[in-house]
Specification:
By secondary structure, this protein is of the alpha/beta class. Helix content is 32%, strand content 34%. It has one domain: Rossmann fold, CATH 3.40.50.2020. The chain has six helices and eleven strands. The strands form three sheets. Strands 3, 4, 5, 6, 7, 8 and 9 form a seven-stranded mixed sheet that branches. A two-stranded antiparallel ribbon has the order 1-2. The protein has a two-stranded antiparallel sheet with strand order 10-11. The mean pLDDT is 94. It binds uracil. Uracil (URA) binds next to helix 6. Uracil binds next to helix 6.
Amino acid sequence: MDQKPSQFLRFMAELRDERIQKDPMRFRENLRRIGRVFAFEISKELPFHEITVATPLGEKVMQAPSQEPVITSILRAGLPLHEGLLSVFDRAENGFISAYRKHDETGTFQIKMDYVSCPDLEDKTLILCDPMLATGSSMAVCYDALLEYGTPRFTHLVSVIASQKGVDYLRQKLGHRNCTLWVGSIDPELTSKSYIVPGLGDAGDLAFGEKLQD
Ligand code: URA
């Protein structure tokens, strides 16, 4: 995202601030607000056509989007971001993917996917969102899984905070595809457990509470 200072950066700062994070309702709302900003920026890339609107006093030629996107998100942290995008693209179709990291004894992990619910994607504009782009592997695995539902005309990948490693990985994996990656910030490091530093912590836990196991 364009980093010319705007209210967007206040939302980002609140999201990262460990004191403000103590209020999960505000954390979720900041993710929604960020989703709305991304949606407005993405909408500038979509095709529009002229429509004529009748007001009580006359007619006005205006512009309307030519196609509604399909918004898909990776559960569970993606949900508030999804809601923010959907509140702007309020006629979008929707899809959901359950994907998580399954850690093994060696400290590495694989991405496990339990559930995909998605409409037809053939020739549509796809938005795939996941707030945290750490290694980039969840996003790449989920994108591949979505291709089972048709080949999108164009895909907008949306993350609030990315690591440089995640961005590089997606560029290498999906750089040849019809995709744009939108990120609010690129952070320099990953921990040994692939958490982004400075990042914000665990987005799913902050939004919805700690879970029993990873
Ligand atoms: N998922 C998170 O919630 N946080 C990270 O830093 C990386 C992945």
